């Protein structure tokens, strides 16, 4: 089955700096790659996603890049703010079966003042 | 987005008892339901997948006789933790999916915090 690895497990940045989180996946059939932000005790919140037919997608301060050949994708957050502090998960899904997601191990992002 | 509710939001039960968690998709029909478990400071781990009207498919290592899943309608699924033990204490999250609503995006319930004493 699909295996998703995520790095780093913790990331501390100064407010205003950029943060980058990287994920790799194992199954070349995966075609959908969402990123979630999860605050303590809450459900995961979709912040951006990318499909396999696109190499990059941007939404204001957040961007995701996908390299299908290398089977890795990255989340980029620019101009970080304290409210960006949370745990971020990448995920990958293979078409069919209701789009079962395989999650990465998570990154605890801390934005310091 | 989609409206998904889960009940209860938190529950404390004694070891050996059973707990039922309900998940409802309020504004769309969920043809597939995923149930995840999340231990503290860990990722979401898929427990099982169910399609409306059929038996659930469990992931490796998840006991089907301990975690009973019922997906009797397109808007309601239940997860029953039977004979709960302290190691079952976790955050349980449902995720209804519908090819009709959005073939890619998954929606999540708010989660149920289970504590077994």
Q: What layout of secondary structure does this protein have?
A:
The complex is a heterodimer of chains A (113) and B (117).
Chain A: E1 4-7, E2 10-14, E3 19-25, E4 32-38, E5 45-51, E6 56-59, E7 62-67, E8 72-77, E9 86-93, E10 101-103, E11 107-112
Parallel strand pairs in A: 2-11
Antiparallel strand pairs in A: 1-3, 3-8, 4-5, 4-9, 6-7, 7-8, 9-10, 9-11
Chain B: E1 4-7, E2 10-13, E3 19-25, E4 32-38, E5 45-51, E6 57-58, E7 67-70, E8 76-81, E9 90-97, E10 112-116
Parallel strand pairs in B: 2-10
Antiparallel strand pairs in B: 1-3, 3-8, 4-5, 4-9, 5-6, 7-8, 9-10
Describe this entry's structure for a reader:
- The complex is a heterodimer of chains A (113) and B (117).
- In chain A, β6 and β7 (62-67) form a beta hairpin.
- Chain A has 113 residues and is an all-beta fold.
- The model of chain A has no long low-confidence stretch (mean pLDDT 95).
- Chain A has strands spanning 4-7, 10-14, 19-25, 32-38, 45-51, 56-59, 62-67, 72-77, 86-93, 101-103, 107-112.
- Chain B has 117 residues and is mainly beta.
- In chain B, 0% of the residues lie in helices and 46% in strands.
- Chain B has no helices and 10 strands.
- A 6-stranded mixed sheet of chain B has the order 2-10-9-4-5-6, with no helix packed on it. Chain B has a 4-stranded antiparallel sheet with strand order 1-3-8-7, with no helix packed on it.
- In chain B, 34% of the residues are buried.
- Chains A and B meet through β5 and β10 of A and β5 and β9 of B.
């Amino acid at each position: 089955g699909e295996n998703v690895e995520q790095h780093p497990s913790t990331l501390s940045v100064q407010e205003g700096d950029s943060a980058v989180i990287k994920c790799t996946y194992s199954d070349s059939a995966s075609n959908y790659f969402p990123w979630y932000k999860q605050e303590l005790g809450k459900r995961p919140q979709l912040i951006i996603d990318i499909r396999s037919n696109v190499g990059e997608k941007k939404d204001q301060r957040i961007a995701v890049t996908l390299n299908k050949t290398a089977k890795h994708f990255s989340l980029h957050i620019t101009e970080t703010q304290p409210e960006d502090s949370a745990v971020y998960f990448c995920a990958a899904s293979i078409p069919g079966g209701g789009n079962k997601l395989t999650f990465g191990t998570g990154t605890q992002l801390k934005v310091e003042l | 987005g989609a409206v998904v509710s889960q009940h209860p939001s938190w529950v404390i039960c004694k070891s050996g008892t059973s707990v039922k968690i309900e998940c409802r998709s309020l504004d769309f029909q969920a043809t597939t339901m995923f149930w995840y478990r999340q231990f503290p400071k860990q990722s979401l781990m898929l427990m099982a997948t169910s399609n409306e009207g059929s038996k659930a498919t469990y992931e490796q290592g998840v006991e089907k006789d301990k975690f009973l899943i019922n997906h009797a309608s397109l808007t309601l699924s239940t997860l029953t933790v039977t004979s709960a033990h302290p190691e079952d204490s976790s955050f349980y999250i449902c995720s209804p999916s519908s090819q009709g609503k959005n073939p890619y995006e998954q929606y999540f319930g708010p989660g149920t915090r289970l504590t077994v004493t």
